[in-house]
Each structure stands twice: as C-alpha cells, then as structure tokens.
Write a structure and sequence with these properties.
Structural class of chain A: alpha+beta
Number of helices of chain A: 26
Strand content of chain B: 25-35%
Order of helices and strands of chain B: EEEHEEHEHHHEHEHEE
Number of helices of chain B: 7
Strand order of the largest sheet of chain B: 6-7-8-3-9-10
Shape of chain B: globular
Radius of gyration of chain A: 34 Å
Largest sheet of chain B: 6 strands, mixed
Strand content of chain A: 15-25%
Largest sheet of chain A: 11 strands, mixed
Helix content of chain A: 40-55%
Distance between the termini of chain B: 19 Å
Structural class of chain B: alpha/beta
Radius of gyration of chain B: 17 Å
Distance between the termini of chain A: 34 Å
Largest interface: A-B, 20 and 25 residues
Oligomer: heterodimer
Chain lengths: 810, 227
C-alpha cells in the first residue's frame, strides 16, 4: 500500500502538467458539487431542526365556492381549537397570525424599526417548535396578552448586548408589549421565519360553539397540529369530512360551498406545498436541475481523468509490461491505477474545499443562490465523511476504466505496443469527448434560452407602466384622512407627474372573492374575481388604457361603492355583448360596470390574465375601530420624471417627514417589486450560466491536456508534414479537425436536450419567449471556438517550431 | 534439459498478409548451458526468445520447459513459471522509470512474495555484486546506459533464476560497458545459470558455449564453441 502511494506521488510529481489539469478539473467540479450540495442539503432539511418535526403538521384548506376552488395555507382562527377538542388524534395545536399586512413598525423609546415578519402566536409555541432560548421562560413567555418574544437579532437592534427581558416595545397603537423571551435567530431553512412573536391571547377564541362556527369561513392564520408519531396523513380526510358535516355543512349549503382540509408534514412544506396565501416556498424541480448540473460537472471532470489516463496509457505500457513479465498479476496493477485515481480525487477534494472556503468568503455566491451556506468541516463530521467518501467514489469511478484498460494489456503487447493506442481506446476517448461537449453545449444553449425568457419577461408590455413608478406605504387612518393634503404637497414637488392610491400592490397577492355578476340574460351568477380598490386617477397614473366607457370621476362622489371598471378578460369570460351597465355585487360594493380596461398583468407572467375588477376606494374611515385605525395601510403610487428621480424622492421624503413623523419614510420602485416575482427563475438562470461556464472550462481543460498529448504523439508526423510544406494553420487544423467534427455532432444531440429541458421549464410561464433556433448555433459556435482556441494554444508551438526539432524528437 | 522445442511455428496474421516469424524451430538447451542466437534483423531471434521466456505463445509446435509442456498454458500459469524461473535482460534495459534502482531490483522478489526482511539482504547483495549499490536511491533516468544495464542484470538475477534470457544486452552500450555486462553474464554462467542470448555481435557470441544462426524464421546452423 505504502509502495503504491509512493509510486503514485512520484508519478504525480513527474507529470506535473497532467496532474495539474486533472486536479484542477476535479477540484473545480468538487467545489461546484460542494456548493450545490450545501444548497441542496439546506433545501432538503427545511424545518428539521424542530425536534418534533415528524409529529408537527400544518393544516391547509380548500374552499369551493360557486364552482371555483381556492386553496389557502391560512385557516380559520378557531379551527385548531375545535379540532383539538373533538378529535383525540389531534394532540395539540399552535397558530401564527401575521401581525401586519406589510411590515410592522415597532418603537422602543426613540428607536423605531420596520419588521418584515412578526406574528401573533399561541403561548405553547415554544413547546411545539424548537427554539434555542437565550433569556426568559418559554412556559410563560406569551401567556400575558401584552407580551412579546423576540429573536437575538431583534434584541440586539434595540438593546445591543444587554438582556432585554422586562423592556417594552410598542406598535403604532402605542400599546406597550413586554419582552419576556429572547430566542436564537431561526435557521435560514425554516419555512416560517419570524423576528418577533406577540401573544395571540390578545384575540380570544369564543367559548360558544355557534360563534365559533361563524368564524370557520374566515381564514387568516397558519395552524399547526401535533399528531401522534407515524400518523398517516390520509387518515385526516375522515376528520376533515366529519368536521365539515358537523360544523360547516349548514352554512356551506346556503353559500353553495364545500370545504375540505388536509395536513402537510412540517418538513415537506417547503418543497411540496402548493396552496395560496403561503410563505415563499422552494421548487423541487429546481433542486433536480441543480443536482443534474452538479452531476454533469462531475461527469465532465471524471471524463477528463479517464481520457488523459487512457491517452497516457501508452506511456505506462512499458511499466505494465515489465511488471507483468516479472510476475505481477492483474489485480495489483488495477489496484495501483485505481489508487492513483483515488489519490487524485482526494487531493482535488482538499483543493475543492479550499476553493469553496475562498468563494464563500470573497464572492457573492450566497447572494446569487439566495441563501446562507456554511462549510464547517470540523464541527460537522458527517459532512467531512461525506466529502471524503464521495471523493473516493469519484476516484474509483474515474479510475475504473483506465485501471481495467491499462492492466488488461498482455505483457508483450505492452512492451512492443509502446507508443500506439488501440483503435478501440481512441474511439472510446472520442465518445467521451463527445459526451462532454453534448453536456457543455446543452448547458450553454439552456442558459441562453432561459436568459431570453428572462429578458422577455422584463421587456414584455404588461398593460401598465412600471418604469419610474414609486410605491409609498401610507400607514394609519390619521394619514389617510389627510390624503388631499398629501396630494397637494406632493403635486408641488418638481418631477412629480401624477399620483394615485390603491389598496393592493400589482404583482402581489390580491383579494379573490366570489361576486354576484349579471350575465347577458339578466341573471345573476356567482363568479370568482380578483379585485382592487383604487384612488383617483389610478388608470392614467399607471398608464392603463380604457377600451370602453369612462374612468371613475373625482367629482361624482356617487361613484364610490356603485361603480366598477372590469378588464377585457372579465367581459369576455362573462360573454357580455355590452359590458357597460352590467350589475356587480362584491362585498359592500354594489353597482354597475362603467368602463372596460385593456388587459394588464396584475400577477406575474407565470399566470395568464384572469377576470379583474377595480372600484373606487372608500374615503370614509368613520367605521374603523379605534385599534385598527393604526393598522390600515394603502399604497401611494407616484409617477416621477426619470431625470428628476433623485431630487424628487428627497423632496417627497421631506414632505412625509412633516406629514407623518412617526413612520420612517419607506418606498420601493414598482419595477423592482415586479422583478422579485422572477427571483427564483433569475437565480436559476444565473447559476446554470455560471456552472455551465465552469462545465465548459473543465471540458476545455481536458481538451487542453488531450491536445498536448496528441501533439506530443504526433510530433514526428508534424515535422515530416512541415518539411513537406504544411503551414502552421494547416497543422493546427489537422490537430483540431476531429474534435471540431465531434462538437458538431454533439451539437445536434445537445440542442434537442436543451430544447426539451427548457420547454419543460417554460411550461411554468403563461407567456413565453419564442425559441430562437439561432441560440443552438450560437452555443455550438461558442463551444467550437473555445475548443479550437484551446487546441491551437497547445499545438501552436509545435506547429511553429523548426521541423528539424520535431524530427529529432523521440 | 531446461528447454526443448519441437516444430515451433509463429505466424502473425493481419487482414491482408500472413507473416511467418518462426518456422519449424526445434531446439534443446541443457541445464547450465550458454547459448547464443545470431542472425540478421527480422529473422525471428527475438520472437523465439519471447516464446522461450513465456511472454509469447507459439502458433504450432511444443515447448517443454524443465520437462513440462508449457506451449498451451494460459497467461496466469506462464506468469507463475516465469517469475520463479526466468530472468530477462533487454537491449533497452526496460527499467521502470518511476522506481529507484533498489525498487527495480526488488520487484521480482515482491512478486514472488519474498518477505521484506529477506528481500533487503538479497537486493543489497546483488547490487554490490553488480557494483551499483552506491546508486541504489537513484532513478533510471539518472544513470548511464552501462549502469542501467547493470541494474537490469541485477534485477534479472536477484531471484536466482534457472534461466536468463538476454535480448541484445550490449546493443545500447559502448564497448567498455558492453564487455563489463558480458563478463557479468559469463560469471553467472560459471555459477551454473543457463543463459540464452540474442546478439548481432560475434564478439559477444564468443562468450557463449554454443551459437545457432537463424534466417527467415528457421535455424540454419548450429555450432558449438569452446567456453
């Protein structure tokens, strides 16, 4: 064993170039696999830090109203309690209710910060979910309605390193909440993330069954159940059906509705949930994509090893022959060659780990992938063992064919056959180079196609203007009641071209409800529609186009609550011959269609345009309860002149600082907000692009080594050809011709693979860029050019040298 | 007899041509004899030597080594006989570049599973005898041709084989080094080792007891020389 290691190390030292090419390729591949592996591990271990994750399930439900199905991750506030009371299988429940529609401002003395994720939670939340408690008693932390549990980062933001237990924070409503617990920040791979939890005991569950039943049709919070170990999720169907019959059927029949609930194992939510009103979830198929890319890169690097090792076989033939003549059997030789491959892989693994450490420390890879990656070899022996084990496996896979091939030579063939490779082995090598380029070209073509779709999504007209539109949150009725003042002040700001308000943000979750809509025959039918309340001038500020009827009028106060503008799809779906004047009843709004707006994409381009209605926002807030006055929010959308953006924003901030001093000014650009809808696709495209480039690079590394070898082998032939008058270009063509032909052959196969893969991906978009066949040509050209340059670089010297040197070479 | 062949033929076939490398070669070598095979290039000398050394097989005929018919043995059995009984010396030395002098010489002992403790004195002894011990940690590339051939001879004899096959052992050496190698072979012969040597050089042939000449794959004359 020792002797083999010694020989392997000597070979490595003796043939440095070969060793560097192999180790560099394998190390890069291992680094890529490690980065993607860490990412995959994170994605696949969501919520598993919870000790009881196998017993925790989230209840989700589906309402079927008037024929349209809506699936929600959020459920009724009373569902958990009622299930626990009625079914012994349900051992316990805990709930999370979002504390604000969008970010919550929390004050402590003169400090105020917005928080993205704050929830009201049940006081048993620390029993059910696992938290590392830093300060406080988890048993009692959230029992008092005026209490809060905060994360370590949260506590640090307000109180630095001090223990904040007993300190208070307050919402806009001014109610003080006492901090009773500090927990360590949640791991990044948690589907429900929060910085602070407030006590849900603020909202009481009624004791009366009738009152409870009335609340079953309002959904708004996440409910998690604790079930027995190894509970079969299918069994929950019976509970759901029984629960519906006993508690909901009566009301549901009046509404012509049905309801069912099912449960999702906690650890499956991130990758398997597909319900509405959910936290952002992962995409299982993207994980498959990443895993495939990692595997491809590894295969390309292994192919380099196989190719270079078998190409060099002739060099080692003599040593094999002599060893056999002296009595060596086949096994020791195979072991020797396999051992060498494993040694290469292990060295590459060490280099790969160093690359990953450097990349994680100095590059924006975490931002690119969109998650935190940690490589802690000492603290994570499982990971270290996995890396070592995988490297040995890679070594064995890469070394197997060369070992079998090299050790198979009969002793005499090995001696006299020196310098000649068999035709079969050359074909095999060509096949492997072909495979490398099929992979490379497929990845390049896929990246180009995906990038084309991303450009298409960014450039496609949406039916409204998204450039230079700034969205500002208006918080609290106090400010909303002074909307006229806000408008007047802002109108005076240079660069402000127009403004309006809305209750929702384009591209974000919008209310979906069943409305009663009159059809052409004058019959009212329940219809599911998405809708949004808007302020004056909304259509003109957003650049939307009316195709029939009129816009809402500022002067006609009677428009409020009595008028609707619908989109073309709405009118088409209803089959209206004349949309204007048709009656719609939607919640408190009961009126007629006064206009039809050209279709616009109010959701991401993953979804086709659906029926949509807009109506004037209520400006009368007298019915809003005292507490809720602080939490009503609307969006102000301001159209700015592109060349005065900076100064206008500064002036607008100034205006808000005066009109609304308690809320730190916050705004976002509409186009940024819309771009976020494609964040995961953009990440995927970028990553496939980067890893694709690495894949091509590794393939070329192998080609470089192979070209070096071929050139060396054909030195004498090159010399003779040059004596006979060949030019350097002809020599380089001679050496690259075969590879270029291989690339061309590979391009056809690669194009088909790329087309099929991207077509599958594009199926997730309702609007897709047409596939440009030129993309496949470009990908092939890129691969061929890179390969040609690689070979030319390698053979340039020999091709330019004095032919006598080549002839003398032996 | 250490070697007895009868009607050995060796044909090389390709798609178009059939070449007869050996044609009806019958030959006997006694234990302890030093035989030289001479003849022009391409006459089949090396092919015969390879068959005698069990690294190639005859197309027809029989080959008895130490009385055992080995002509149809599979590689595994030939390998066994080879490593226990035969030492090779090649014109181009055929040392393994990535092994040191010591490791090259040690290799046959490793393959015959001689324990490490026993290998060391044997390797050291043979290195001393070939006057190359001071170079034990060098690699073949760092040695002169004569030194390399002395290492090759050392490797051939370290296992105390019954038979040494030498294929143009002085072909790549100057006359001084060539003479040195021939003196070593003569010494081995004097100690009782059988030797079959292929050479072009009549001068080297004079070191042997018996010379045969080959032409076009056949043995055309056999002559005995005084030792």
């Amino acid at each position: 064993m020792n002797a083999y290691l010694k020989i392997a190390l000597r070979n490595l030292y003796r043939e440095k170039r070969y060793a560097i090419i192999n180790i560099a390729g394998l190390a890069l591949a291992i680094a890529c696999c490690l980065v993607l592996g860490l990412y995959l591990r994170g994605e696949l271990s969501y919520d598993r830090h919870n000790v009881d994750h196998e017993k925790i399930y989230r209840v989700v439900n589906e309402f079927n109203l008037g024929g349209s199905e809506d699936r929600f991750a959020v459920t009724s506030p009373v569902l958990g309690q009622m299930l626990t009371d009625a079914y012994p299988e349900v051992e316990d429940y805990t709930r999370f209710r979002p504390a604000a529609e969008n970010r919550l401002l929390l004050h402590h003395e003169d400090q105020a910060y917005y928080w993205d994720s704050v929830y009201f939670a049940d006081d048993n939340v620390f029993d059910v979910f696992t938290h590392d408690v830093i300060y406080g008693d988890p048993e009692t932390a959230l029992v008092d309605p005026a209490s809060a549990a905060v994360s370590e980062s949260f506590a640090r933001r307000y109180w630095g390193d001090e223990n904040p237990i007993g300190e208070t924070i307050a919402t806009d409503a001014g109610v003080p909440l006492t901090v009773r617990l500090v927990f360590a920040d949640l791991p990044p791979n948690t589907h429900l993330k929060y910085d602070a939890l407030l006590s849900i005991n603020y909202f009481r569950i009624p004791d009366d069954t009738t009152q409870r039943r009335q609340q079953l049709f309002n959904v708004g919070l996440y409910t998690y159940l604790v079930m027995p170990q190894d509970y079969d999720v299918q069994d929950f169907a019976a509970i759901s059906a029984d629960f519906f019959d006993k508690n909901m059927a009566e009301t549901a029949n009046q509404l012509r509705a049905t309801w069912r609930a099912w449960i999702q194992p906690l650890a499956d939510i991130h990758l398997s949930s597909d319900v509405g009103y959910d936290e952002p979830t992962g995409n299982r198929y993207y994980l498959y994509g990443f895993a495939a890319v990692a595997l491809f890169i590894l295969v390309v690097a292994c192919i380099n090893y196989v190719n270079l090792a078998t190409a060099r076989a002739t060099r080692r033939a003599r040593s094999v022959g002599i060893r056999k003549i002296l009595g060596s059997g086949r096994w020791p030789l195979m072991l020797q060659f396999l051992g060498e491959a494993v040694l290469f892989a292990l060295i590459a693994a060490v280099v790969g780990v160093v690359i990953v450490e450097v990349v994680l420390a100095f590059s924006p890879v975490e931002r690119l992938i969109g998650t935190e990656l940690r490589l802690d070899l000492l603290g994570d022996p499982g990971l270290t063992a996995a890396i070592v084990g995988a490297s040995i496996l890679v070594g064995v896979l890469a070394g197997l064919y060369p070992a079998v091939y090299l050790s198979s030579w009969a002793p005499l063939t090995a001696l006299v056959g020196e310098g000649k490779a068999s035709r079969g082995s050359i074909r095999f090598r060509q096949g492997l180079v072909l495979a490398q380029f099929v992979i490379s070209i497929a990845v390049i073509a896929s990246t180009l196609l995906m990038a084309a779709q991303m450009r298409y999504v960014a450039d496609r007209p949406l039916g409204f203007e998204k450039q230079n539109r700034v969205m500002i949150t208006l918080r609290g009725v106090d400010l909303l009641e002074r909307e006229d003042t806000v408008r007047n002040e802002l109108s005076a700001v240079p660069g402000v071209l127009g403004m309006s308000t809305s209750a929702s943000l384009l591209g974000r979750d919008m209310p979906v409800n069943v409305a009663n809509v009159e059809n052409d025959d004058g019959v009212v039918q329940p219809t599911t529609i998405t809708h949004m309340g808007v302020g004056d001038d909304y259509l003109s500020v957003m650049g939307m186009r009316l195709v029939a009827g009129r816009d809402f009028s500022q002067r006609l106060l009677t428009d409020v609550g009595t008028t609707f503008i619908v989109n073309e799809t709405f009118a088409e779906n209803m089959g209206w011959s004349e949309p204007l004047g048709k009656r719609i009843q939607l919640g408190p709004n009961n009126g007629r269609v006064i206009g039809v707006v050209s279709d616009f994409n109010f959701q991401s381009l993953h979804t086709a345009v659906e029926p949509f209605a807009i109506y004037p926002l209520q400006t009368d807030f007298s019915n809003v309860s005292e507490v809720n006055r602080f939490f009503v929010t609307r969006w102000l959308v301001v159209n700015l002149a592109g060349d005065q953006m900076g100064s206008a924003l500064r002036d607008i901030e100034e205006v808000f600082r005066e009109l609304d001093p308690i809320h730190p000014f916050e705004f976002r650009f509409l186009d940024d907000s819309l771009n976020e809808l494609y964040a995961s696709e953009q990440t995927l495209t970028r990553l496939i692009g980067i890893f694709g480039a690495i894949c091509v690079f590794i393939a070329c590394l192998g080609l470089f080594g192979l070209a070096a070898f071929t050139t060396e082998q054909r030195t004498k032939e090159i010399g003779i050809r040059k004596v006979l008058g060949a030019t350097a270009a002809q020599i380089i063509w001679l050496l690259s011709r075969n590879v270029l032909l291989l690339i061309l052959a590979g391009a056809v196969l690669a194009s088909v693979i790329a087309y099929l893969a991207v077509d599958e991906w594009l199926a997730g978009f309702a609007y897709r860029a047409p596939v440009n066949p030129l993309v496949f040509g470009v990908a092939t050209l890129v691969a061929a050019a890179v390969a040609y340059v690689t070979i030319a670089l390698q053979s340039y010297r020999t091709a330019h040298d004095d032919p006598v040197d080549a002839l003398r070479y032996e | 007899m250490i070697i007895e062949t009868e009607g050995l033929r060796k044909l090389y076939r390709t798609d178009l041509v059939e070449t007869t490398a050996l044609d009806d070669v019958s030959l006997a070598v006694e234990q302890g004899q030093f035989l030289t095979i001479m003849g022009p290039s391409g006459c089949g000398k090396s092919t015969l030597l390879h068959i005698l050394g069990l690294i190639d097989t005859p197309t027809e005929g029989t080959y008895r080594f130490l009385g055992e018919d080995v002509s149809r043995y599979a590689e595994r059995r030939r390998s066994l006989i080879r490593k226990q009984n035969i030492g090779f010396v090649f014109q181009n030395f055929n040392l393994i570049d990535e092994l040191t002098v010591y490791e090259n010489v040690e290799l046959p002992l490793v393959y015959t599973k001689i324990p490490a403790s026993e290998r060391r004195p044997r390797v050291e002894a043979v290195l001393e005898r070939m006057d190359i011990a001071h170079r034990r940690n060098h690699f073949p590339g760092q040695l002169s041709g004569g030194q390399q051939q002395r290492v090759a001879v050392a490797r051939a004899v370290v296992n105390q084989p019954n038979l040494i096959l030498a294929d143009e052992p002085t072909g790549n050496l100057d006359s001084e080094n060539g003479d040195e190698v021939m003196r070593i072979l003569q010494q081995l012969h004097a100690d009782g080792t059988s030797i079959v040597m292929v050479t072009h050089s009549a001068e080297n042939a004079a070191f042997s007891e018996r010379t045969i000449r080959m032409l076009d794959g056949r043995v055309v004359s056999a002559a005995a020389a005084a030792a």
